[in-house]
Fold this protein.
Amino acid sequence: MKRRKRKAKWYLLYRKENRDAVYVYEPLRKYELQSRLRRGWKVIKT
């Protein structure tokens, strides 16, 4: 029996880079989101 993969959800992420606000809206899986959070991104909207 095959295992189903989790679908990616769309997340709006925010981070400050060199005093500029950077926004990214992209589909991420849970492990991808956790990686972004560790790198300093913050979730604004799911």
